[in-house]
């Protein structure tokens, strides 16, 4: 605490915190929600307080330094200790916030090793007074949930530079599993190979995609003799979606008969997460993610990160808790890649929380972790298809510039954009410099189409794409055909894991944050450009896919041999 603050605080006591300033406000209740009733005054709210990071601009500089080819620091990823030094709040901010709470008979606990998140519980009536808020119960009938939120809140003026946000307050986001269609299941028969195929002339891949189809389409190697240590692919698991080992065994026997069908995956548990092995509780999303990573990376290590429902209000807490769990992990325990097939509509999240989460992704990227997210399944109408939108709805985390967003394609012999592939431009995050050339070229081609419906200066997404229609998945010993960009992200992640395996085997660093590399020229040319299709929504045809980058398929789909050659491995 600087001397001036100390003198004012001592002379004013509790009055030091009496002047409140508006910190965040939401102009209207988000679509899908209705007001139920005022929150019961005696109900206990558990609030999270994000303290402003000590040097987020320095972390940004370091991220690009270790992630941009040609930089002297390229591939020299930061340690946990180095990242913590950037994201830790100042000692002054921690003292001031804790003093404010103490004067109101409240005690906070640290949620992270860096101390940038605090948690405190209090009755609704105290929260309303302390934050000049009006906590209310809101219903979402479609999702069948209730959220206690406020449309605005204030904080002491003296803490304005110390508190980044308080949550849950103005965020109404509900985590969506980004899987557009699950088709009619078909029972497997004695775990036999149900879709045998020998070559691309086999038309079965046009409608029923398997790992063997993807190996041929994208040239993904079998990785039978993978021996690179420290090459782990992490799978995010939310919403009580469980990955079943017996179903994986059946899947491998049917669709990767050259692999050991008993190949397993590891489990990490966050927020009390579990992974029930009751086949009747197997989830389509978890099954898809595990089967198409294990089935493509073969002997490379795969870890399922199961995030439980404890402390998980609407899904956002689970997102932050999983990232905090990884940030707090020792360097040797970090997965090299994490793929996530869940997301939100950007307008359902407060800007402050979106920025905080995005900064957390930056922190992981600086430590050499590749983060991939499915772009969404609502075309230009958001994470899921919705009616009535009058402007395009960006998705999150795809709008964060520190992750790689994966869109969807369809068709085996003639790949085209999947019509549901979410893509567009963030309303929160500005366009990063690594996108300038590619996006400017697209906007020049687009001309006046969709003028006024999107933020042309925003971070554009997706960055890349992969197959997203007709993937065969085994759930409770039956095959299901699944569509959605939830298919695309684990596929692309598997390609990166296979490239990392070669890099690490040659004593080189893993790829880390991809975007400066893939937009930099050499690697973008190693992707297969998708030039047909569009992503309709909001009463429009959405954006068209064109030559070069586009907000439907990004820079294109993987070509393993070309990527390998471009990386010189």
TrEMBL record:
Record Pfam families: Pro-kuma_activ
Catalytic residues (UniProt): 285 (charge relay system), 289 (charge relay system), 486 (charge relay system)
Keyword Glycoprotein attributed: yes
Ligand binding (Ca(2+)): 529-530, 548, 550
GO molecular function: metal ion binding; serine-type endopeptidase activity; tripeptidyl-peptidase activity
Domain Peptidase S53: 208-569
EC number: 3.4.14.10
Gene3D superfamilies on file: Peptidase S8/S53 domain
Location in the cell: Secreted, Extracellular space
Cofactor: Ca(2+)
PROSITE patterns: SEDOLISIN
InterPro entries linked: Peptidase_S8/S53_dom_sf, S53_propep, Sedolisin_dom, Tripeptidyl-peptidase_I
An example Gene Ontology CC term for this record: extracellular region
Catalytic activity: Release of an N-terminal tripeptide from a polypeptide
SMART domains cross-referenced by the UniProt entry: Pro-kuma_activ (SM00944)
Source superkingdom: Eukaryota
Keywords: Calcium, Glycoprotein, Hydrolase, Metal-binding, Protease, Secreted, Serine protease, Signal, Virulence, Zymogen
GO BP term, example: proteolysis
Cofactor note: Binds 1 Ca(2+) ion per subunit.
Its job: Secreted tripeptidyl-peptidase which degrades proteins at acidic pHs and is involved in virulence.
This protein's name: tripeptidyl-peptidase II
Organism: Pholiota conissans
